[in-house]
Amino acid sequence: MILYGLALSSPCNKVRFLLHALDIPYDFQIVNPLSGEGQSPAHLQRHPAGKIPVLDDDGFLLFESNAILRYLANKTETSFYPANPQARALVDQWLDFASIYIGDGMARVFYNRRLAPMLNREPNEALIADGLTTLDRFLPPFDQQLSKQAYLAGAGLTIADFNLLAILDPAEVAQIDLTPYPSLQQWRDGLRTRDFYTRCHKSYADAVAAMKAKT
User: Fold this and answer.
1) Which of 2, 146, 179, 186 lies in disulfide reach of 56, CB 3.0 to 4.6 Å?
2) In the 8-state DSSP scheme, what is residue 64?
3) How far apart are the first and last CA of the chain?
4) For 2-79, CATH number?
């Protein structure tokens, strides 16, 4: 199994978290869209928009990170994606809700505060402000949910948790304060000690430092 992506990519890392949690061996092939590698003819054959991640499962190509999560979970029949229709619907609800709102807000802040300077580009302060406003509005429901139960969709860890963990992983690097959300922060801190996380990286800051050392 091959995963094409980049260690700084939250969409890639959610898939890596799941692969490690399922103990599935994979070859991580680096494709860096920031340097234009995503637009190479070879990668455009894998993803028509040149994005990451892309999974190659013995010749079966799949893009879109949430589709990859669902595929791997279905293939392995793991409890990370329960078979019960209502339980699965709740996983899908929190998975998509986080991707649409928290993912969008984090991406705006992270790109302009961290990636733009690394690429010698001017940060867009309006997009940073817009991203922070989005996070201020939509992080509270996640904190409230996690104040009532151990994981987003219930008592057990699911792909919805891998997704949100990857989205929020760059918070410190992007100077986003999560202390107003104690239940969310406790959930995140706990998951970052798990084997599936530490096999991916010690911390997101370490992943950033490793990339900067190569450039």
Assistant:
1) 2
2) S
3) 28
4) 3.40.30.10
Q: Which residues of 127-156 are buried (b: 16+ CB within 10 A; e: fewer)?
A: bbebbbebbeebbeebbebbeeeebbbeee
CB half-sphere exposure, 166, CA atoms < 13 A: 28
Reported as a single tens digit per residue, the pLDDT across 130-181 is 999 999 999 999 999 999 999 999 999 999 999 999 999 999 999 999 999 9
The CATH number of 85-212, from 1.20.1050.10, 1.20.1250.20, 3.90.1150.10, 2.60.120.260, is 1.20.1050.10
Neighbouring C-alpha atoms within 13 Å toward the C-beta of 28: 16
CATH 1.20.1050.10 in the chain is located at 85-212
Single out the residue of 160, 208, 211 nearest to residue 30, CA to CA. Answer: 211
Q: pTM for the whole thing?
A: 0.95
